[in-house]
Amino acid sequence: MPMHRLSRALACVSIAAVLAVGCSLVKPGAEPDAALSSIGTGMDKEQLAELLAPPRIALKVMIATRPIDEPALRDLAWSVADEHVIDPDRRLRLEANGLRVAVVDGTLPPEVEEILSPDAPQGERIDPIYIAVPEGHATPIQLGPDEPVERKTLFLSLGGGAVGRDYENPRPAIRVSASRSGGSVSLRIVPEIHHGAEQIRFAPAENVGPFEPEQFVMREGQQEESFRDLAASISLSPGQILMIGCWPDRPGSLGHFLFTKNEPKSDRQLQSVVFLWASPTGATEIPWVGPIAPPNSLREVEPSELGVDRP
């Protein structure tokens, strides 16, 4: 038989075999739904939530604000903090932009503990912010007042040298990303400025599970400028506290803008320091927050009371 006829015959046999068997690569008799339904078998709700939800890092954030000439935040807090956790070149770059980052390994001075105490006087008490960040994700933390300033000129020392930039309606912020690293938490802090008019844009959705595709959502907000050249990476062990603040005697710097502001109805300046704790956590719990007991008045509701018929 000529070669071209032999090739055609083999091709026809192959096609016939495919048509007879079909395109399924599943072993005959297998039930894919049964395999999928076996995921989570024998698990309670909390275990199933741990399986389906992404690993998370719990952050506790407290932003303390006091007059710029008070020593508690200006000097005492930094006196027990280690700024050498940042490599020398990075630390000099942060300092040139008026920024300070350090870790406290132990207790804070009594004057600072009093500021952060839940028993502080009414009106001075700082309510902690609790955030559960999916591992590897980043979350913004707003630092400034609710109303932005109309215009601000900043002098920035970046990789290409010193530059001056003007911002319309700027708001100060930092962006924190977290991931597990053995028994500690690796944090990356990036200073940001949110500025300009509010606008609608697409952004990646947060808090998605490991089995979900990447999603984008519409958000309304200002333009966000991240200073990645000034990012600081820190490894935080249990019991340690991350401090983020500024050198208050450097007006016009990025740090001064992020962490100082004018007192309302006064010309007195205030400075802020961010205190941050981090801990790995599960999908259904956050450290530092005790379990919340349901009220005793809860009762079972019949579907008919809600206008719904039983199936």
Account of the protein in words:
Residues 1-20 form the signal peptide. Keywords: Signal. It is a single chain. By secondary structure, the protein is α+β, with helices and mostly antiparallel strands. The protein has one domain (56-281). Helix content is 21%, strand content 38%. The chain has helices at 3-21, 32-37, 45-52, 71-79, 88-96, 110-116, 254-259, and strands at 56-67, 99-105, 129-134, 138-142, 151-158, 161-168, 171-181, 184-204, 216-226, 232-236, 240-246, 260-262, 269-281. The strands form 3 sheets. Strands 1, 2, 3, 11, 12 and 13 form a 6-stranded antiparallel sheet that branches. Strands 4, 7, 8, 9 and 10 form a 5-stranded antiparallel sheet that branches. A two-stranded antiparallel ribbon has the order 5-6. A hairpin with a 2-residue loop joins strand 7 (171-181) and strand 8. The protein is globular, with a radius of gyration of 28 Å. The N and C termini lie far apart (69 Å).
